[in-house]
Structures are given as structure tokens and as C-alpha cells.
Amino acid sequence: MSAYTEAESYILNIPRFGEKHTLEDTGRLLRRIYTWQGSRIIHVAGTNGKGSVCAYLRAVLMAAGFSVGMFTSPHLVSMRERICIGSEMISEEDFVSAYGKIREIVKEEAGQNAQEEARLHPSFFEFLYLMAMFWFDGKKPDFIILETGLGGRLDATNSIPRKEAAVITHMGLDHTAYLGDTLSMIASEKAGIMQAGAPVIYWKTDAQVASVLAKCAENLQIPSFSVSKNDYIFLKFNHKSIDFSYQSLYYDSIKLRLNTNAFYQMENAVLALRTLEVILGEGKLSEEVMRQGIADAFWAGRMEEILPEVYVDGAHNSDGIRALLETVSQDGCTRRRLLFGVMQDKDYRFMTEEIAASGLFTDISVVSPKNMRAVEAGILENVFGDTGCSVTCYESAGEALKALLSQKKEKEPVYIAGSLYLVGEIKELL
Q1: Of the CATH numbers 3.40.50.620, 3.90.190.20, 3.40.50.11260, 3.90.190.10, which one belongs to the domain with range 304-429?
Q2: Which of 59, 237, 283, 318 has its CA 20 to 30 A from that of 325?
Q3: DSSP state letter for 19
Q4: Positive or negative: CA dihedral 149, 150, 151, 152
Q5: Backbone CA torsion sign across 414, 53, 373, 321
Q6: Considering only CA atoms, which of 153, 142, 149 is closest in space to residue 57?
Q7: What is the rounded distance in angstroms from the CA atom of residue 71 to the CA atom of residue 59?
Q8: 3-296: what fold?
Q9: Whole-prediction pTM value?
Q10: What pLDDT digit, counting tens, does each position of 290-317 carry?
């Protein structure tokens, strides 16, 4: 077993949803490995679009000539995807080095006491976050973009002592067991990433959410900037790209092109642009840099065409499914196929009802992703049956993909959605 495989195996065996530590615990370990204060840190929370906003932030900053570190989750195929500088993942050698360093400082903090080490040991997410910060400390990028895992206020990434800005994306009812069962409660948890001295830029999901976020910003006496559908105009769908205009803070309306067919990415791109205009200030971000960065941006697993007319999309909750259906409705096709698989902690009954009610798919298949939290394919078959839809049930993602590709006809796109774990499985198969 290679050193990298050994490190990856160790981390994979840390419980993903085990006991979380306090921010003080994480912060104490962070101070041992992150001493560089020169990087400007952008912290991103929200329900949907976090990873995409991070990708647009990175692409525009890179177009402007900055070096950019980024920590995101989850990964689709390789754990190294979570830790990047520019568009390059951390190398296997650096991954092993960072892994070794985190294990070393945990042992030191525990005083070589096995019982204390078990108590202090970072969770799966905390461990990877600390590895990323150790690597960034050595690389010293101009900017670091941190995506929260779950929530915001108590998220491990919120242990960072100083931020350039807080960014909050579209809000929805997800992870209600952890964050609360109303949008106001969830917004309060996400608002916990706000920090005195750093502006907040947020998507105006609705008046209720906006009120919570604005009040939190007011209490901290920080500038707040809301972004909504009023800040952009859809112009044209070009099958595999989208033209739209963005109402800049400092320029007139700017025409931009997204190299994706995902309508929901207009929202994420606009939130990223507004964030950078706020951070960098007037005249620091040219129109050409904005155009270049938005055109260059890519985020795997979000309406990604993996084969001709075969798309994977991480639509893993109710809002994600609505966004997926909006995009699919614009593809100009009359026949479509869908492969669907989802986790148990999602509102999969509502998701299946939305899919069935859309009438967009002439053929629906279901599968259970290889994850202990996945909904069994047979259960999904029954749930779709309750809506009046007939579906095909497959034993594995590989079997499903093989069948769908063999059945597919020209101008009959295949969409694969419902869970990022399923998206990762499909990408790994290819």
C-alpha cells in the first residue's frame, strides 16, 4: 500500500458524521499549522451553489492575476479535489505530508495520551480542513476560498481568525435535523460566518431570509450587500452556453457568457462577481477580467456533459431539483432519460413528485448509490409509483449507465442526478 493510499484510507475511516469539536478545539490545532497572515480569506456558506460560487470566485481572481487556494467539499472521485491552488489539486506527496503533520500535532496536543488523542482527534471534515490550511500556509496564495461543510456558525472552517468577506448563497430547507426546520433558523446558522470587519454579500432568497441576514450584519456593524434576480438578465441560450447581462456596481450592464447550459449558474456567477467588486473596490476588476473569468469557470458535476448528450448534475435536494428541471426544460428536446439516486436524509418524496409533475422525462431509472445513507432503489421505485410514474430499477450505477447508453437515441439526452455520490460513481466509471 502506497503512503498516499494509506493516508486516504485512514481519513476515509474517520466517521463523517461523528462528534464535532468546538471551534476552540479546531482553532487551537489551526494555530499550530497556519501562521501565514498574508492570504485574503473569502468564506462561503449557504444551501445550494456554494461550490459553484467558489469556482466562479477562483476563475475571476485567476483571470485578474491572483493566486488562489480553495477548500471545498465533497469530492467526486479523488479526495485531493477538495484542496487546490488554481486549478491544480494538491499532489499525492503534499497530501501525505499534510496528513502526517495533522496526525503529529494531534498527538502532541494530547501529550501522547491515547485516550486524550481519541477525544481531540478531528472529524473527517475537520481533518481535511486542517490539512488544507497547513498546505496553504506553505504555498501562501493571494486568496483562500473556504467552503463550509454543514451550516456555518459551528462549522470547522469558521475557526479562521480573520476574513476578507463572508458570502452566503441561496438558502433552502436542507439538513433540517442539524440546522433547524425553518428558513429563518437555517439563515441564522449560515449567518454565523459573518465577522466584524468583513462585509457580507448574500443571495436574497426571500424577504424572510434577507431580514435575518441584514439584522445579523447590522448587529456586527458590517456592510451588507444583497444580490437577487434583479441584478442580471438572461439574454440567450446557445445550447451549451448562456449569454446574460450583469448589473455591475461600478460599470453599466456587462454582457457575459457562461460555458454551461445550467441556468442556475447565472445566480452563482453574479453572486461571485458582486463579492469581488465589493472586496477589490472600484476600478480593480475590469470588464474584460469579469468576462474572461466567467467564461473560464468550470465546476465538475454541475450540469457537466460527461459524454455527448449525457449530463451529470449534483441536484441533491429540493431546490437543486427545481433548478435542474428549469435547465432541462430549455434543452429543446422532446424525449429525455433520467437516472436518479438519492440519500435518505433528503426529501426524496418531494423530489420525485417534482420530477413526475414536470413531465420532462420519457424514461426514468433509479439506482442506489454506493453509500450506506443511500435510499434503496426499490423504495425509490415505489415512491415514483405513487406518483403514477413507471420506472426501471437497476442494481448498480454501472449497470444503469450501460443500459441507458445502449438505449439512447440521437437528440435524446440522458440526465443523471439526485446525489453527488452517484455523480462521483458515474465519473469514476468513465
Answers
A1: 3.90.190.20
A2: 59
A3: P
A4: negative
A5: negative
A6: 142
A7: 14
A8: UDP-N-acetylmuramoyl-L-alanine:D-glutamate ligase (3.40.1190)
A9: 0.94
A10: 999 999 999 999 999 999 999 999 888 8
